[in-house]
Amino acid sequence: MKKNFHLLLLVAGSVCMASCNKDDDNPSPKSDAKQILSFVFKAANNKALNEDVTAEINQEDKTIAATVPFGTELTSLTPSIEVSEEATVSPAGAHDFSSEVTYTVTAENGTKATYKVIVNQADPNASDAKQILSFVFKEEDNTALNEDITAEINQDNHTIIANVPASINETTLTPFIEISEKATISYSGPQQCKRESIYTVTAEDGTPASYTFAFNFTATTQKEVLIAIYKSNPCNTLPWDIYTDDIDTWQGVRLNNEGKITVLILFDDDNEVGYGLTNLPEVIGELTSLEKLESHDNLLTGLPGTIGNLTSLKSLVLSANALTSLPDEIRHLTNLEILLLSSTSLTRIPDTMGNLTSLEELILSHNPLLTNIPGTIGNLPSLEFLNLRHNPLLTTIPAAVCELQDKNPPITILKDDGATCEDSEDN
């Protein structure tokens, strides 16, 4: 674990908890780690800067060099410093970087390391070019690959996506990166519980540009789809051993006689955030034999459009997630009989919901942001039960939906007392 130091630097000492065993004759040795891991002048902490400036650290020489845009006032800059676990750094606060500044890192065991920091202004005629021009995982540099993998770069959004097979150990891959002439590049490393990592390109004139990189896991087998789900959620608590070949033994997974996944249960009753899933990758659309998908009580914010490929699906349970929208491709789930979408952040339901001709049970309760539902729900020929309760912003219900109660046999509709039916166009 690393500690971040901002403005007033945090000081971490050794604290003996009350539960410590005072009679322990063999205490753990104190750490001698004493490195400055990152040194950044953040624009948020420095009025003189419009963008963050990340310094380059030479651990061998214990030197730190940063280049700020030409004309930047150097006399009062505040760095954000990240150091080794259990270490402290001094001095704190703002300093005059018009000349060399010395920082001392003290390890837990009291040993020290001294870093010299030099900040220069960029040449006024320096280039401002700061693009990542190519990002390739070359076969010759990566033994896990049998061909080069070229990532897709979006220069407008500053995103980089590399499609890699889910079965590959992506943590061993090393990219070959081409950047603008005279620019430099730094890597932040993986972000905790995030799929993304950040590459920062700094132009010759000191101005930076940050690119967000992520792997998109591809799959050609049922197992690779499951691995992609696992890897796409870095802080998941799924009880899967992804190195076990027999996926029929994986919790929540059921196969048919052809070895195709028909049931996938992705929730944990013992944890209020389930398995901590934040997204379902696009390759879930490869599970075309899937009949039951349950991923309630997780942290999902959306669904991939490939969910529409799951045309065998009969039951879809996504309640208690942070879903903000549903893809229009959901209209292709014409065999779906049960759809549970309670306790989400949905604001609307797509009109294409009316295409779910086999739907018998639709639960849309406890959605505090839901403001309307489409009248196309009234066209669902197989619907038997509709729950619209506990939706405080859903004050009117389309007439076509209310008229379902007049069918023979009538359809059960549960709604809040304050929700009224719109007038029928026939009246």
Automatic annotation (TrEMBL):
The keyword Repeat applies. Residues 284-364 form the Disease resistance R13L4/SHOC-2-like LRR domain. It holds the Pfam family LRR_14. One of its GO terms (cellular component) is cytoplasm. Keywords: Leucine-rich repeat, Repeat, Signal. Residues 1-18 form the signal peptide. InterPro entries: Leu-rich_rpt (IPR001611), Leu-rich_rpt_typical-subtyp (IPR003591), LRR_dom_sf (IPR032675), LRR_domain-containing (IPR050216), LRR_R13L4/SHOC2-like (IPR055414). This is Disease resistance R13L4/SHOC-2-like LRR domain-containing protein.
